[in-house]
Fold:
Amino acid sequence: MNISFIITTYNIETYIGRCLESVLEVATAGDEIIVVDDGSSDGTPQIVTDILKGKNCPDRVEVQTLFLGENTMGGVGIAGNIGMDKATKDCVFFVDGDDWLDADGFRYARKRFSKGKHDILIANYQVFDEAKNTYKAPADEWRWCRLSSGADPQLRQLQALRLIAVPWRKFYRRGFLEQNELRFPEGDYFFEDNPFHWNVCLNTDQIDFLDVTLCYHRINRPGQTMASTGAELAAFFDHFQTIQTYLSPETPPQFRTQLIAWIVGNMSWHLERLQPEAAPQYFRKAEAACKHFTKADLPEDLVDSDAALYVILLQDRSWEAALENFLSQHNRKELRRIHRSASRAKQKILKQFRPVRSAVVALRNCVLYAVHYASYQKQKDSAETK
Structure:
């Protein structure tokens, strides 16, 4: 089984070198590496050229570098589709240009996928926090203990849909993608991997799961989409509407339930980071999406969540009511944050000046002692004179 590695890049000159080196370490004869640069304005294109045209590229590994020149609208969608159009090998494997592969985990997963007859294989990954310089498990780590490749077909699909949608931890059979015309949606929005993931999973029950670390995903770096706190989060409601078009009347009801769980669960994540200036646009789109289901459709584990409260406000009242509640909550949180910050600053100042304060107190005590002693001596001298 040969692989088409599709690497998407945009202004990541600091990170692309490590990414490419990790791909070159696992690429074997017959594979191809396709880099689609989405109009970088930094040194990314030159670094890509220097590394892939150098002597480090394994023999008989084909290389295609596509420099788009201008940044396309949205996120990875257009660049990812261009990469798929250029792919010619048995398997497609996406790589984020600021991530890097785990060689042992990748080789193990590759061997597993090549021996099976699955359309996709979903593996695990680790998160690297750029700001804290630490590693941690992804948010869906707890789901792995409940996964089973031997489950019934529909359950395998639902299990896959409950995992984070990222494309770069999956092996895709290229023939399956082409036969079903599976592509990223293209538009002026981000997070396109979500409808792509849903479309893939709805079109096959031949899904394998493997709990090994394939790659390391970098977070909290400057300019990253997952650091979004503004209007771009509203794209999830566009994707919700798109995914609904993938569900036919014959689709089992469990998938619609899962779609509602998906959007409400993501709203919980959004509300923790949404900024006030982006909230009006966010809640207008949220209202349109929430009209497609009722309170009775809310998943049991999310009924008491903050997101469920907003869903009810959007369904029973209006997006303005939801916005008003959000701003009120945000202001209270901001006041608490300011109070905590001021308290910490006060304690820091007091700690810094504690030695000075102690010296002032000691000096004051010395002065008082001197005054009292002088008064005592004066009274004593006066008594002795008499």
